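From the pipeline queue, job 12 of 40. The input is one protein chain; the requested action is below.

Action: predict structure.
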Amino acid sequence: MGSMLLFPQPLSVGSLKWVQFIQTAAMFLFPPLCMAYLWAQEPMKWLKVEKFQSFKISGFAILLMLVALPTINLLAHINQQMALPAFLQPLEAWMKNQEEAAKHLTEQFLNVTTYSGLIINLLLMAVLPAIAEELTFRGVLQRLFQGSETSKSQTAKVPHLAIWGSAILFSAIHLQFYGFIPRMLMGALFGYALVWTGSLWTPILMHFTNNAMAVILYFVALRQGWNMDQIDAIGTGNTLWLGIASVVLTIVGIYAFRRSTTMSKASSRTSSGN
């Protein structure tokens, strides 16, 4: 989900949500929009938001994120088992405190049982961060790392460094270090989705799907009296088999998604040529 601010003084949940909205807009939404309108002659094209993808590609992107849910949980579980060397124990203690504080704040935000509360959370924790963070990390940073598309440099032709560089920053900015690996890998997937489809709306849709799943699952769990820890554990422990199956299906899904976008581009070029 979106990066969370931690506050030393107690504030109401409603106030925290307003501050979160302002923070996300100020840090991730307005800067890339301002940069595009100041630097580019065609801002929408520069940000790659001038066109939407087909329903087929969009549906494929949503399905891929749904299939990847147990994979994300499994990677998060593995990430949480990692320990730093003894001389870095103070750093590890600080990281754990940050993680717990962020988790507590997220749970406060998600603690709603009304449909109006669900809609507000979807807007604040799924729609806004998906658009704002993708504009910043894939729309601007990945583009800047990659360089001009007309450049003959290797970075422009094969933008792996640009994709992974922006993915690492995307994960680090959340200050939730025990979820660093799955968030970084998701960031990389979003980056490749942008390169493969040529539209920022694809990673925005994937980002939204991931965040919306968490919001909706938590909402349903609260209304049904389920244990949320069991949902977070899907793909680990007794359901490890589901996590392994999800990993395999996710890898296959990414390959199929790549082929589908390539075929879609080829079909578009053929149609425009005729």
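Job complete. The radius of gyration is 19 Å.
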